[in-house]
Amino acid sequence: MSLMKGQGESPSLDDLPLSTLEYDTTWLLECQTMYETDKTTEMLNRNAKQQAKTCNAVDTAGTEEKREV
Q1: Distance (Å, rounded) from C-alpha 49 to C-alpha 56?
Q2: What is the pTM of this model?
């Protein structure tokens, strides 16, 4: 009796070497970390742009007030 599975069947997790599972888990964690880092960077950039717009609006308003006085 052979322990090998038929060609059409996919291996179960029990059949995979532990090192493969550890590698896959590590890779998934790295992917998730990169994704979260990208999202955080995107959010920080968006906040910085909004802050710059607010500062520019305040500077412009301050300049206009000074001109009126």
Answers
A1: 10
A2: 0.41
